[in-house]
Structure prediction request, 118 residues.
Amino acid sequence: MTTEQPDLYAILGVARSATAAEISQAYRSLLRRHHPDTRALNNGSEGALSDTTLQRILAAYRVLHDAARRAEYDRETGPRPQAHRRALEPTNRSDDYERPPIIAGPVRWHRVPDPPSA
Prediction:
């Protein structure tokens, strides 16, 4: 019995040549849309469909956000364009790490002048 593996790129709505940042952005967008805490309140059947879709999104992101798992998935499902294989090869450069989306610095408190008394 052969089970056909779903297209993880189609689940996230990105191209096979998508960068890690594009995959993360698509994942966060879909997560906001289908997560039970953020989706609009609907009837039970639509909620169950969103739950199933959410599980598929989580499974797709689990594979595609990890470079090694993504490379293995791409080998199993078919060839990729030659230009993008180099992006998946590990390097030892420290600038390959993705910067966090929000960078918070130290908090600086400023004294607010007291309001004039009447």
Q: What stands out?
A: The domain at 8-88 is CATH 1.10.287.110 (Helix Hairpins). The chain has a mean pLDDT of 76.
